[in-house]
Amino acid sequence: KQEVTQIPAALSVPEGENLVLNCSFTDSAIYNLQWFRQDPGKGLTSLLLIQSSQREQTSGRLNASLDKSSGRSTLYIAASQPGDSATYLCAVIETSGSRLTFGEGTQLTVNP
Amino acid sequence: DADVTQTPRNRITKTGKRIMLECSQTKGHDRMYWYRQDPGLGLRLIYYSFDVKDINKGEISDGYSVSRQAQAKFSLSLESAIPNQTALYFCATSDTTRAQGTQYFGPGTRLLVL
Fold first, then answer.
1. A-chain residues near B48 (CB < 8 A)
2. Is the separation of the CB atoms in B32 and B74 below 8 Å?
3. Which residues of chain B fall short of a pLDDT of 70?
4. pLDDT at position B92, please?
5. Which residue out of B43, B49, B60, B95 would a mutagenesis test of the A interface target, given it has the greatest number of A Cβ atoms within 10 Å?
6. Which of A19-28, A94-103, B41-50 has the least mean pLDDT?
7. Whole-angstrom Cα distance, residue B4 to residue A59?
């Protein structure tokens, strides 16, 4: 059974700092990996999706990497802003391309 | 307008009551999913559907049932609600023709079972 772990569970940083969120998964037979953002009381917004054949994806200040063999992904946020405060969720899609397995998330607070 | 909508957004019900949560999408996607989110447990898959005639159980389907009335509609039912079904419920969609499998989520339904 696939298990996804995110470390740390919570992170508080001053504005402007670069930061890294970590995600690990136990079964490397994944189809792709997706990073989401969740604001309090809101749904999930997809940030980046990395296909299993890729090593990284970039969108603006966000960069996600994937090392399938070691079962790890990182989300790098450059020059953090208070508006980045949210919970960030990592999820893997099985090889069947159907089931998303989520980590519990990292709650990020960026202080002005 | 939102691509994936869920109704109701909030619901309070009593133990033993039947309740239905509804999801509609305008994205034209063939696949739809129901998840629940609990503090400390993350999001877990309840049911998923690849098309109108294809329904599959997820990891926590006990106590739930679903209906795919049309490609755009996927309903989740709690036949006899119990307090440990109190959670935040999300509907999601994805498109088979887009091999990346990106899932798009609705805003969620917050359910409280007393």
1. 98-99
2. yes
3. 1-2, 97-100
4. 93
5. B43
6. A94-103
7. 23
